[in-house]
Amino acid sequence: MTIAPDDARRDGHLYQVMREFVQSMDDTLPGKFEITKEGIVHDMMSPAKPHELTTLRVRRRLEKVLPEELVAHTGTPDVEEAAEGIMRHPDVMVIAEADMEGEGSFDPRTLVAAVEVVSRSNPDNDWVSKMRDYPLLGIPVYAIFDPRTGSGAVLSDIHSTPDGPRYATRKDFVYGEDVTIGAWTISTEQLPRYP
């Protein structure tokens, strides 16, 4: 569900109000809150077991092939670009361990890749909104795993368009195939599907 502000302006004050709201709700209501260009997105359902198991398996497989200085991180904090009015929380972030130091949100320009496992309750958040937001944030590679269909896509090569930065290259895959995320290839064997 997207909660759009009445005022369509995306000034710093409005973003700060939305950010404070999200922070106040994080431990109060179930699900996950993020801030997009449209407003606040609330994925009301707690992640299902297939979502969490896919996230775990993708993270472990990436960690086996990543160089030592990079990690496949699944925790907090969020990725935030206040100037764009966007705060997201990828399921898996490929990031240098050194870029995780310090306080506050991660700078999205430090991410090497973002990986999302599509939510059963809000698939457009991953397939539409994040496909728009991640190139705007400068995240060079975005991989989507969809347990609804047993397929996914890897997007890369950010380029300018009249509607803003977009990914120019999309490589679709089906579960069972190897998939390349950035410079690293992992298996998609035995990834769970939603019932």
From TrEMBL:
Residues 27-155 form the Putative restriction endonuclease domain. InterPro entries: Nuclease_put_TT1808, Restrct_endonuc-II-like, Uma2. CDD domains: DUF820-like. Pfam families: Uma2. This is Putative restriction endonuclease domain-containing protein.
